[in-house]
Design a protein that fits this description.
The complex is a heterodimer of chains A (454) and B (462). Chain A is 22% helix and 37% strand. Chain A has 454 residues and is of the alpha+beta class. In chain A, helix 4 packs parallel to helix 5. Chain A has 2 domains: 216 residues, PmbA/TldD superfamily (PmbA/TldD fold, 2-Layer Sandwich); 220 residues, no CATH class. With 462 residues, chain B is an alpha+beta fold. Chain B folds into 2 domains: 93 residues, PmbA/TldD superfamily (PmbA/TldD fold, 2-Layer Sandwich); 233 residues, no CATH class. Chain B contains 10 helices and 23 strands. In chain B, the strands form 4 sheets. In chain B, strands 1, 2, 3, 4, 5, 6 and 7 form a 7-stranded mixed sheet that branches. In chain B, strands 9, 10, 11, 14, 20, 21 and 22 form a 7-stranded mixed sheet that branches. In chain B, helix 1 runs parallel beside helix 2 and helix 3 packs parallel to helix 5. Chain B is globular. The chains are: A alpha+beta (454), B alpha+beta (462).
């Protein structure tokens, strides 16, 4: 199979060709488009069809870095961006580790990231999908209304080139449907509304499972009706797959090589030590085609690769881009991330997963005497401090008593520390599912978590 | 940015297939940012974002397309795409006559950041780094960021509206990490205003950095936060996010019209303690959420949302106001030309109450004093909201005692508003915020006097 080469590669190449002696230049060029349909009560509420493009240029000279970007590929604008990036160089501090990535010989694991079926999918049918999902969700339960039902797709291609010999381009597309639901119960002062959501993702709309998305959206909202605030106490929590995926995402920021070299990771001195229960093996693997965020190359154009971060509870390695790796005296793990053309590469996990166990969620719950099945977390951005490790988040879910799921609870928080939670993992479920985020989900049981309520 | 006759032709073209409304929103933004971390200025970055979003409304359907091509042909192509998306058939020729609105500039810009040398911007970071590090030997890491932008905005629509505005923003942030026997702790401070570089004539950037360092070091001796429901006192100028989450989002007319807010149908009713008067005001000079016109070309204004505990009005944008046949309130906002506008807050704050802040503490036997809040989020339909505390202390026997580790607080909007039982007379605006909704972030301000909530659930472990 020949790799797809984007015509944007030539744009990036032309910028890099202008490098002067003693100057490192990297150009990242991207172009993309999106369709977004929102349906409400059987009508299209909005339809967005849009294209965008842009370029980001990084220049390094004598250990100083400058950067500039523009949201256009107009030739004059590109000239201006290069000039601005060069001008910005003089204000950077000399950094002996500042340099662009260099080809490292790691072979690219080809991924099928482009789907022609989606590219050719007719607009009317996209609208029909959102309408169909709305109908299914509102019909799933008499208490359920639909807040909005959506279809969205996006496609993008990008190219990166550098004076250090990086030259890589690619394209991908993907789509999803999602639905937000409201479930009502009671009247007057007793009236209560709870919310739910459901979604389905795919490389093509033919992979959607609308029935499941609708059912989950209705279940999530109705399950919480009648929820009360329980008394505070310590419990065993069983995290739903979606919640586990969010939790793993938080953990990943402590394994970020940039945080490590800058002294901001609570695991910075712990390589080779036990940091988690022995059942915990955590892997970042963007070459797994099942991962929603699977990719063949990272944000600096190096091959994506499988990295085992925690093996049976022992911390094996951190993830790095080329800068953090140089500082740490190691090599890039292919974990440069890039949010688009408007920024320089950061470091991050690309497709994380715990190694799944064997049992179902029901079997895990059967072993819990006093616990909480956590169905949603709220406020991960405000109540979790990945530097100190303090973990406190709003939650809602169902109480577990003597191995059986019982009454719904809300207006609670669950709290512990990240360090303690990893060691307190009791068991990992076998119910792995790949979600539209950088982590896979599965049920996860953690003991001795504080539930705050009344 | 775009000539009036070009706009008139593009708008006329956009409604030629029968739509009743079309709008062009164009922006040209230049920005500069600089980041310092680990003792080094990592990079200075310059950005240019320029483009137009075209919205066409036919019946209940909105079509939207955007382009970075501001030529007449580029705009016409986007207009055709937006019109096709909102297509209702029919058609006809309409002539659009645009009338320029008189300028409305709540902010005076004395020194355009574009005219300031990049070296002067970088120097601010170096001063903050130095100040935070020299505050105490426990400080092991400091990062600081500077950002400014100048955005020219033009809005024109088929109702004849034509406005142009220029928004200048200046932002500074600093975070410090302290290390001790109990692990690492963090402190964070930021300031942001819709004014130019002259802000640094009056703001003490070193003090901002020392404050971040002080927070981090203080928390080294923090004990785990308590767990459960208790009285919570929130320091002035830090807790505006409480109202932003507890009721602000729930008062946005889009949630109201879909019956997805606990405040739907409650205008004229008591929704908060009689102490509470809540205002959203996009005209406050220099504040982070201030605009001359909202992003639909409607002049910003001061809107009283809750007066003495009684719900007086919601916040409105073009579409929602049109549906209810009432005036807009200047709350139609969007992240950029690539986004559709929706109902958003600007600067949201609670007015002064009668109490002395010291009395509030001394009359609270036991509880938590929150000196700095982090972000928050809300479920508008259930009313449940959370917000983080990043600097907090125990209150014991009416006195502030030991520092507490970070955590979230959780409450239910209507219940918490009713539970505000003391409100001080020391109003202050808070730090600049970015409010996220439906995937879009917009700058917002908030403020409030010191206040007490009779009972809030504190999400600690102790």
């Amino acid at each position: 199979m020949t790799r797809f080469e984007s015509e944007l590669q030539a744009v990036a190449d032309r910028v890099v060709d202008q490098a002067k002696s003693g100057e490192q230049i990297e150009a990242y060029v991207a172009r993309g488009g999106e369709t977004e349909v929102r349906v409400y009560q059987g009508d299209v509420e909005h339809f967005v069809a849009a294209q965008s493009e842009g370029i980001g240029i990084r220049v390094i000279r004598d250990g100083r870095t400058g950067f500039a970007y523009a949201g256009t590929l107009d030739e004059d604008a590109i000239r201006e961006v290069l000039a601005e990036a060069r001008d910005n160089v003089q204000f950077g501090t000399v950094d002996e580790w500042a340099a662009l990535a260099e080809p490292d010989g790691v072979a690219v694991t080809e991924q099928t990231l482009w789907n022609d079926e989606l590219a050719d999918y007719p607009t009317d049918r996209k609208i029909d999908l959102a309408k169909e999902l709305e109908k299914l969700a509102s019909g799933a339960d008499p208490r359920v209304r639909v807040d909005d039902s959506n279809y969205a797709d996006a496609h993008g291609e990008s190219a990166v080139a550098s004076t250090t010999g990086i030259r890589m381009s690619g394209r991908e597309n993907g789509c999803y449907v999602s639905v937000s639901t409201l479930a009502d119960e009671g009247e007057g002062d007793d009236a209560e509304t709870q919310t739910g959501f459901g979604f389905s993702v795919g490389r093509s709309p033919n992979e959607f499972d609308l029935d499941r998305a609708a059912r989950e959206a209705a279940d999530r909202a109705t399950r919480l009706l009648g929820a009360t605030q329980p008394p505070s106490r310590r419990v065993t929590v069983v995290l739903d797959p979606f919640v586990t995926a969010q939790f793993i995402g938080v953990i990943s920021s402590t394994l970020n090589g940039e945080a490590v070299v800058k002294g901001r990771s609570l695991f910075r001195d712990r390589l080779g030590e036990t940091v988690a229960a022995s059942s915990v093996t955590l892997v970042d693997d963007p070459t797994n085609p099942k991962a929603y965020t699977a990719t063949d190359v990272d944000g600096e154009g190096l091959a994506g690769r499988r990295n085992v971060l925690i093996q049976q509870g022992v911390l094996q390695q951190f993830v790095h881009n080329s800068y953090s790796a140089r500082r740490a005296g190691t090599v890039s793990t292919g974990n440069a991330t890039r949010g688009g053309f408007a920024g320089t590469p950061g470091v991050g996990c690309l497709a994380l997963s715990l190694e799944p166990g064997t049992r179902s969620q029901d079997e895990l719950i059967a072993d819990v005497d006093d616990g909480l099945l956590v169905q949603q977390m709220q406020g991960l951005h405000s109540g979790v401090n990945p530097i100190s490790g303090d973990f406190s988040t709003g939650a809602a879910g169902l109480l577990i008593t003597n191995g059986a799921v019982g009454a719904p609870v809300r207006e609670i928080t669950i709290a512990s520390t990240l360090q303690k939670m990893l060691l307190d993992v009791v068991e990992i479920g076998g119910d792995i599912e790949w979600l539209p985020m950088r982590s896979a989900g599965m049920s996860l049981v953690i003991r001795d978590v504080t539930m705050s309520g009344t | 940015m775009i000539e009036r006759d070009v706009l008139q032709r593009v708008l006329a073209g956009a409604v030629s297939t029968g739509a009743e409304f079309a709008e062009v929103y164009a922006e040209d933004k230049r920005s500069t940012s600089a980041g310092l971390d680990d003792g080094k200025v990592e990079q200075v970055s310059s950005g240019r974002d320029r483009g137009a979003g075209i919205r066409v409304v036919a019946g209940e359907t909105t079509g939207f397309a955007y382009t970075s091509d501001l030529s007449e042909s580029g705009l016409a192509t986007a207009a055709t795409a937006a019109a096709a998306a909102a297509s209702q058939g029919g058609g006809g020729v309409r002539t659009i006559a645009l009338t320029s609105s008189p300028p409305h500039r709540p902010n005076t810009i004395e020194r355009d950041p574009d005219s300031v040398a990049k070296a002067a911007k970088v120097e601010l970071l170096e001063r903050m780094n130095e100040a935070a590090r020299s505050y105490g030997s426990e400080i092991v890491q400091v990062s600081a960021g500077y950002g400014d932008s100048r955005k020219q905005v033009l809005v024109a629509n088929t109702d004849g509206v034509l406005t142009d505005d220029e928004i200048v923003r200046t932002l500074l942030r600093v975070s410090a990490v302290a290390d001790g026997d109990t692990g690492m702790q963090t402190g964070y401070q930021s300031m942001g205003h819709t004014v130019g570089f002259e802000i640094f004539d009056t703001v003490d950037v070193e003090e901002l950095a020392r404050e971040a360092a002080r927070q981090a070091i203080t928390k080294l001796r923090a004990r785990p936060s308590p767990s459960g429901a208790m009285p919570v006192v929130i320091k002035h100028g830090t807790g505006g996010v409480l109202f932003h989450e507890a009721c602000g989002h729930g008062l946005e007319a889009d949630h109201i019209q879909k019956g997805a807010s606990v405040y739907a149908g409650k205008v004229g009713q008591q929704v908060a303690s009689p102490l509470v008067t809540l205002v959203d005001d996009g005209t406050m000079p220099g504040e982070w959420g201030t605009l001359g016109f909202d992003d639909e070309g409607h002049i910003t204004q001061r809107n009283v949302l809750i007066e003495d505990g009684i719900l007086t009005d919601y916040m409105w944008d073009y579409l929602r106001a049109r549906k209810d046949d009432r005036p807009q309130s200047g709350n139609g906002r969007r992240q950029s030309y690539q986004h559709l506008p929706m109902v958003r807050m600007t600067n949201t704050f609670v007015l002064d109450g009668p109490d002395d802040p010291d009395d509030i503490i001394s009359s609270t036997p036991n509880g938590v004093y929150v000196a700095k809040l982090g972000g928050g989020s809300v479920n508008t339909a259930s009313g449940d909201f959370v917000f983080g505390m990043t600097e907090a202390y125990l209150i014991e026997n009416g006195e502030i005692t030991e520092p507490l580790r970070d955590g979230n607080l959780i409450g239910n909007g209507p219940k918490v508003l009713a539970d505000i039982d003391m409100l001080a007379n020391d109003f202050a605006m808070g730090s600049p915020g970015t409010c996220g909704k439906d995937g879009q972030g917009v700058p917002v301000g908030d403020g409030q006097p010191t206040l007490r909530v009779k009972s809030l659930t504190v999400g600690g472990t102790a």
